[in-house]
Known about the structure:
The complex is a heterodimer.
Chain A: E1 4-13, E2 16-26, E3 31-35, H1 42-50, E4 57-62, E5 65-66, E6 77-80, H2 92-102, H3 107-121, H4 136-148, E7 154-158, H5 166-183, E8 186-191, H6 194-200, E9 203-208, E10 211-216, H7 218-223, H8 228-233, E11 240-247, E12 250-252, E13 259-261, H9 264-273, E14 278-282, E15 287-289, E16 297-306, E17 311-317, E18 320-326, E19 337-342, E20 348-351
Parallel strand pairs in A: 3-8, 3-9, 6-7, 7-8
Antiparallel strand pairs in A: 1-2, 1-4, 4-5, 9-10, 11-12, 11-14, 12-13, 14-20, 15-19, 16-17, 16-19, 17-18
Chain B: H1 10-41, H2 45-48, H3 66-72, E1 73-77, E2 86-90, H4 93-124, H5 130-139, H6 149-158, H7 164-190, H8 194-201, H9 206-235, H10 238-243, H11 251-257, H12 266-286, H13 288-295
Antiparallel strand pairs in B: 1-2
Helix pairs in contact in B: 1-12, 3-12, 4-7, 4-9, 7-9, 8-9, 9-13
Amino acid sequence: MAEIRITNLIKRFGDVYAVRDLNLTINDGEFLVLLGPSGCGKTTTLRSIAGLERQTEGDIFIGPRLVNDLRPGDRDIAMVFQFYALYPHLTAFDNIAFPLRAQRIPIPEIEQRVRAVAAQLRIEHLLNRRPRQLSGGEQQRVALGRAMVRRPQVFLMDEPLTNLDAALRADMRTELKHLQHELATTMVYVTHDQVEAMSMSHRIVVMNLGVLQQIGTPLDVYRRPATLFVAGFIGSPPMRLIDGELADDAFIDPSGIFRLKLNAPTVARIREHGATKLVFGIRPEEITIAQETPPDLIGIVALREPLGDETIYDLQIGTQLLQLRAAPTLRLNLGDQVPLKIDQQALRIFDRQSEQAIV
Amino acid sequence: MPTYTPRRTAQDWVKEALFWIAVLIAFTVMMFPLYWMLVTSFKERSEVTLLPPTFVPFVDFKPTGINYLAVFTRVSELGNTVGGDKQATLSEFPEHLLNSFIIAGGSTILSVILGTLAAYAFSRFRIAGEGDLLFFILSTRMLPPIVVLIPIFLMFTWANLREGYLGITLLYITTGLPFVVWMMKGFFDEIPREYEEAAMTDGYSRIEAIWKIVLPEALPAMLATAVFVLITSWNEFVFVQLLNPSRGTTVPPFLLAIVGYGQIEWGRMAATSVVFLLPVVIFTFLVRNHLLRGVTFGAVRR
């Protein structure tokens, strides 16, 4: 069990920056997810921690040890790969025993430890099979077993659930979370799937184009996105973003039809910040149907998407669209005019220039 | 649920028949020379050139083992006494067969080992000028060998490589290597590098990872490649005939040497060829299961 500390990590491939100046401390026993689209640097970061890539600059500590110059095998980490990377010519048993054999552990102990891990993962009956005789989910478990059996200080997981079908993926999410809780081992988990990130992690690190965008708990990242990128990346449907500026104490879009009065503290923060080109952001569940008059905004129903447990409405305000998440009992028809109330505590204002959140 | 099998139409039967006729023709065209050689090796001298020719042993003619005896022994007369004792001594053939084993076998093993290592490096590491280097390696195979015959003859004479095993083995390694490098690189590219990376995070060094994980995976491809390299050097005639015509030579030039005077010894040549073919046939037969997997690559499911 160990804390991981990354300071000023830079990784360049030729002229391309994969990771730019990353500073990150992963707590002992934490389940941390690196989240971002392809090419955001999350996998490179993970591989640098593993020692499979050598960082261009910066230091990586695992526990008290500086591991920059240690081989992957000497870092006391275990990694699970997207394609599991089970050794095809070895049985499941030998796959799991493989890291123990590297440590020259006596055979009876290997036997006992492999069986214990197999029992924990409920794969005892599969130990004599080769990888190609196993289903995707079974291969996944064997790969986990291989990682767990050596009791490493850190688990590194590179999109381990991507190749499973949807139902199995949901099961494995729960199971992985339990497993990490039981083992209390530090886990760094790379994914591009925000559902995995939200549901499993203690903290999420959102990255884009090699730059760290935000670190925070799942709810933090969801409710208070720190940058425009995070706002657009997290949430399904994502946060709705509208360009505009401050006029008196209201946010207006270029056409002037979308006009939303902001409360005093918000206006004060924007003035203090000084940015003129702004982006307004709101999530569908932070808009409600207004009971009092006058409403904050009036929208025209442009599209209805019934999802069963809820219905998403697209509401048109001038040339802008907002989305409203409503209970299925509410029935609005196309073309209806709907008075809307905007949650002033939840809305976000970003600086268009720096893309950072102001409010 | 009842299963529905569509009835075969007459057209389907014709297609099927034509397919098998084509296969039969191809098979006959390819196998007949081999069959003819095999049959000839069991014929008496007078039987070989008989017209019309005979095809089926025991039916058309009585097979004899005399040619095989002649492959391995030579009959010489002791002393000058008329009607003196005749004694059979070992022929030169086993010696040449051994040469073939050493030269073709050695060059095959060495080019597969060296080529596999080079291919691994090309597949896994960033190498400056990788594309150019690979093209250069391939380009050594672009000239017809006959074109470089004379320069190589002169070089080998100068470097004193024409005698013994070393020179010709080196030459066969040179021709085998490009093939091995390209075949094995294609194969390594198909093996996900996550295997080695997993082994390395599991506590092994890269060398150990290659030895324990990559090589067992690559073995079928190595064997398939070895078959092709072996057949090429086993059969090679022109270079060895020109460079090394002495006793140190392989079987193909020896075959030319036993054509005979006055009358061509078809039977003995056929028998020699059959014995000469056997080792390669046996090797190919032994690795046949790996052959398909090795040649079709795609051995690793992603």
